[in-house]
Write a structure and sequence with these properties.
Number of strands: 0
Strand content: under 5%
Number of domains: 1
Number of helices: 15
Helix content: over 70%
């Protein structure tokens, strides 16, 4: 090298085009394998992550107790009790609503058959093949509905196993939580960006669950009042369903609407069913689409399209609990893969509810 000639920077091997393509391929393959692995363990991963979410909600109380010189073990016990109350309340309400629905279905046998026949006749008038109608009418009876739905609604062993896993996970999370403050302090010194992104994840998830719970209660109470005015049976069951489905992004409203609308159709005719649809649509649109997002703010963290896609993705990965955990799980991935890496934060321009987070500096 001649004098005065500056040495040229050598490009690292992993940044050169062939090696970079190999890194991308291996990364995609690794992610695909990890997803397959988590799908196989969804009965463990989903309940544990649910327990972690519940504990994140109550952890500020434990931290407050510790600051006021309450022993760490006692503060953890208080948090565990609160989480167990929430868990038993959640699963207890679900079990009660299912039991009421299972007991109601047989009493509407004749009405269900009559409604089904009238609907099939209406389809026949619209041009549906008569042979298909006759075959369906011969096969239909209320017992076939009950036999199909009952195993899904009364799978006690599945619910008991899920609840047991969640409770065990809560106790182990509580044991780790007593040293969480010091661990996060050490992590902040070693990896400030990661510590900040995990703190943001915890705050966002906590705000998401609290706001979803408050507005779920508001929606449920208003739905109960509307159903009582329309005179639909089992108004409290449908109120519980509206409350629970409020945690499911995007399609929870539809899931909570269909059963009371069908019961109104069977019990009182199509006019009542239309009024149920109108009441639910107005109440849920005003509260969930206009008012709630103003309070949720950045806790959701992603755009509506990403929220919907995450729902489909996490149901595929984690099973039916993925519907409840879709947004928290997406926020966790976003915190680990995007927010923790300053070079990857540009992705927030495309997926974040607030694109300005793409330029948020690390403190």
């Amino acid at each position: 090298m001649s004098a005065g000639t500056e040495p040229q920077a050598v490009t690292p091997w992993h940044a050169r085009p062939p090696a970079r393509a190999l890194v991308v391929v291996l990364t995609i393959a690794g992610l695909a394998y990890a997803l397959t692995f988590f799908r196989g363990l969804q009965e463990i991963v989903a309940p544990v992550f649910l327990a972690l979410n519940f504990y994140i909600v109550v952890y500020p109380l434990q931290r407050w107790l510790t600051r006021h010189r309450v022993p760490g073990a006692l503060g953890a016990c208080v948090s565990v009790v609160l989480v167990l109350v929430m868990l038993f309340g959640f699963f207890g309400l679900t079990a009660w609503a299912i039991a009421e629905l299972v007991m109601l279905i047989p009493s509407y046998g004749n009405q269900l058959v009559a409604t089904y026949h009238s609907l099939m006749s209406m389809l026949g008038e619209l041009g549906v093949t008569s042979n298909v109608l006759e075959a369906q009418l011969r096969q239909f009876n209320v017992r076939s509905i009950f036999d199909a739905v009952s195993p899904l609604l009364t799978n006690v062993s599945l619910g008991a196993g899920l609840l047991t896993t969640v409770i065990m996970a809560v106790f182990f999370v509580a044991m780790d939580s007593m040293g969480m403050s010091s661990r996060m302090g050490m992590l902040k010194d070693a990896k400030p960006a990661l510590a900040q992104s995990l703190g943001g994840f915890a705050s966002g998830v906590r705000r998401y669950w609290v706001v979803a719970t408050i507005f779920g209660l508001i929606v449920a109470i208003l739905d109960v009042v509307a159903l009582a005015i329309i005179d639909v049976p089992l108004v409290w069951v449908w109120g519980v369903l509206a409350f629970l489905t409020n945690y499911i992004p995007n399609i929870g409203f539809v899931i909570g609407l269909i059963p009371p609308a069908l019961l109104a159709l069977v019990d009182s005719g199509w006019q009542s069913a239309v009024w149920v649809i109108v009441a639910y649509s107005v109440l849920n649109f005003v509260i969930q689409a206009i008012i709630q997002p103003k309070f949720t703010g950045e806790s959701v963290g992603v755009t509506p399209l990403v929220s919907f896609l995450s729902l489909l993705f996490w149901v595929w990965v984690l099973g039916w609990l993925g519907a409840l955990l879709a947004l928290p799980a997406t926020l966790l991935l976003k915190a680990l893969l995007v927010d923790a890496d300053p070079k990857a934060r540009w992705v927030n321009i495309l997926i974040a509810s607030d694109p300005r987070t793409a330029h948020t500096p690390v403190h």
